[in-house]
Amino acid sequence: MKRGKWLLAAAFLAPAIVVLVGLVVWPALRTIFDSFYGPAGKEFVGLDNYRDMFRFERMRIAIRNSFIWVIAFPFFVTITGLILAVLSERVRWRTAFRLMLFMPAAIAILSSGIIWRIMYEANPERGAVNALLNIPASMFSPPGDLAGATPSTDAAFDRDGLIVSLDVGEDGGTVLVGMIGIREDEIPESAVQASSIADSPEPPGAGTLVGVVWRDARPGENERGVVEAGEFGIPDVVVRLIDAQDQELATGVTEPDGSFRITGIEPGAYRARIPASEFREPWGGITWLAPELATMSAIIAGIWIWGGFALLVIASGLASIPRELQEAARVDGANEWQVFRRVTVPLLAPVLGVVFVTLTINALKMFDLIIGIAPGSVQDEANVIALEMWRTAFTGLGNRGLGSAIAVFLFVLILPVMVFNIRRFRIEEERR
Amino acid sequence: MKFVRLIAFFAVFALVAAACGDDDTDTTAPTGGGEIEVVWIRGADHPEGIAFLEVLAQFTAETGIQVNYQGLGDDLATILSTRVQGGDPPDVAVLAQPGLLKDLVARGAAKPVSQTVIDGMAANFAPVWSDLATVDGTLYGVYFKAGNKSLVFYDVQVFDDLAITPPTTWDEWIAVSQTLADNGYTALAVAGADGWTLSDWFENVYVRTAGQEKYVQLTNHEIPWTDQSVVDALAVMAELVANPDFVLGGRDGALQTNFVASITAVFATADAVVVEGPGDIAGIAKEEAGAEVGTDLDFFPFPSIDGSPAAVLGGGDVAVALTDNPGAMALLEFLTTPAAVETWAAAGGFTSPNQNLDLSLYPDELSRAVAEGLVNAEVFVFDLSDLVPSAFGGTAGAGIWGGLQNWLQNPDNVAAVLAQIEAEAEAAMAE
Known about the structure:
The complex is a heterodimer. Chain A is α+β, with helices and mostly antiparallel strands. Chain A has twelve helices and nine strands. In chain A, helix 1 (about 1-35) crosses helix 12, helix 8 crosses helix 9 (about 335-365) and helix 9 (about 335-365) runs antiparallel to helix 12. Chain A is elongated and about 125 Å long. Chain B has helices spanning about 1-20, 45-65, 75-85, 100-105, 115-125, 125-130, 155-160, 170-180, 195-210, 210-220, 230-240, 250-255, 260-265, 280-290, 325-335, 340-345, 365-375, 385, 390-395, 400-410, 415-430; strands at about 35-40, 65-70, 90-95, 135, 140, 140-150, 150-155, 190, 275, 295-300, 310-320, 380.
């Protein structure tokens, strides 16, 4: 009979054991085994792979980034989840609210990565994040009419705008300010053929300065610095005349043909300035996925993805806290912050621990988010250990030995967190 | 279900019978049935995948051999290498990287072609195409599809408005770019987020500044990447590609722009005017922005540099048999014939190096020009990054691709970048 019982037990356990051995134990052992072998798994190299992996710049960046992930990601996600959970307690439609925040967790992480890659596009016309930031940016510093333009005549930019040196003689003076780098459809519609007034053999007359600000470009052949047929004046440009002490003497505004006229000035050397606001470029957006920012941007996307998960777990923990304790604290005169800080958070500590540890493990294993979010050119800079393992083992020539060694290294890093988790789990069990 | 199995059983039986040289059957087809598995990068729902499936359907109609097609996408190299390692390769793989062909031959996975294929190649293709699929004197595959990567596409409207004529020399191209910049346009979209577009740029410049001989030497790593000719080529390339006045978004912007985005920037959102790349650009521009060749989009051959001869940098897809399944070799034989790709050529977006394919079949100027370029170029070189081991020439963020991205990030740092590329080349070639 006893033998029969054993057989029965074995029969019931067999499928689980087969699956466990086939899909967990064997691959794990094989990985450790492979990590002592060369790229193709043929020659034995001992511990070389474990030494070599720290020699690669890419791997060092990956380790640094994984470290940043482990420090920042669990912390910010747990805090976000905690704040949202406590706040949503007070919301009438809290279930709908929480469901909405949880939704990103239901999206495949790779897809989330691609979604954020598109949202992080630098051009505010395409990337949602920069489009949002562009609203205040364009409100406080609207782009000027001459955005993107550079002078084709003798002139130089300083902090306050474009500076042109000029002389006014006994018969007055003339000045030409050519502009390139603006499209024809970017100058106001009122613009007409640029004025040739400055080329006129007749001097402008005593005390008079005339000038032309024009678009020094046209289809076909084009000589720089010369007003030619087919080149348009730039209307409505403010030109300030300043003296050597930077004192503003007079102001002119250009006509549709680009000409302006300032009268009543003494002969001498002056400078004309077109203010910097005319040249202000539209806000170009932040390159969120630039090499220096990519890890931070990915962590923000990670908060969006896992924040809902943290919220849900912490909210369920909140629901099981006895209300009397919070009520008692309030009766004793504690304010809401004190109740939160001294009563709610300590009671939630076990739940927060679970969330934190789960997220720490997730941070170490981070892979699909990075591969989705980082453009090819910044995959080196946004690299993490798990991604480096895959890239080493499966892309290019495929160094299986080194890839396996990285996998084992990652496992060793995760191990203490797992041990901690299991131990705490046991203590919890014993308490019950 | 049972019926299907029965048929499959007989099909396999017939195949075995045919393979054993049993001549009792009257079938005219060489193998009289059977099934083969064919893999390529394009998915079965991709326009190119659909067109290739039509070629395979024609093959099935003529030979009775069923084809099970798998489009593996960019992971083809990864999946293929895993399956070869596991002893379960597909019957035929169509590879876009000759480096991968070398890898497979080195592993003993690729099967030498039959005499019929050798004769078919000799009859229909210039010798260069057989040479490209030959490793250590043995022919392993059929280049039935090829592309011309020495093309530059532009927005016709802007060129007409500014009375610009397409440049034929590098200096003219720089002058055109300056004219565009003067008129407020961004001259160039560069897809630096994808490394391969940068390697195409580099190769086009290098074959013109250093010449074909050096190009081949560099490909075979007989000269190091730190060679002065490479430094010089990068300096020339920087005049356009690394010039923030010309490139959309400057160098940082280029590094965030992927291939398709560089095309839509020119033909959909009009952020830039010119984009360099393979003939596929016309197809993508049409698909993404409805741009028509001639009215919206036109192209010029990659300009000559300092009087260099007309050079074409090409890419191609090679079909390789990986099993002894007779259906596999039958497909390779079929692919050497002009008849196999006539329908595809007529459908557009496809060019073949097959000399006996009637040029008038191509539906548009672009395909015809590309195909003519393939046949008539004074210099033809295969894409260098496809000829070297894929770890060096075909891996995102590493080797040539990653190196050129680093260069674009900091073009002043040529020495360090080339030293890094050279180190990776040595490691990859040693394998």
